[in-house]
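ok trying again, last paste got cut off:
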Amino acid sequence: MRLTVYLSGEIHTTWRDEIKQGAAAQGLDIEFTSAVTDHDASDAAGDHLGAEDKQFWRDHKSAKVNAIRTKTLIQNCDVAVVRFGDKYKQWNAAFDAGYCAALGKPYVTLHDETIIHPLKEVDAQAMAWATTTKQVVEVLVNVCK
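nice, full thing came through this time. structure:
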């Protein structure tokens, strides 16, 4: 089975690469997609539309431009993996999980035990909760084979 898997969330670690490498090692036929993972590029996504004198409006424009990609990729994926790290708040990841839930897209959350409580609603809608990228790969193996 060929899957399209959207990788959402934390951008400061190598979790995306670990999942891609693990899936490749298992011979899984998966196309991986993701939001923009370059923080500066994401923040500047709307800058070409004109300068803003307030940070709110710069962020607002860039968020809307980024949302074109995010919404399209989530709508077109078969499953999403939503990663929450412990260092930064990933509000965008929580939003992506909610969007998946609203669309009926299955998703897997990936986070450690220290943030179970703040993510209880997000996890409640997930099809699986993983604490390691290896566990995510095993979920994908079970889906694909």
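cool. The chain has a mean pLDDT of 96. The first helix runs from residue 15 to 25.
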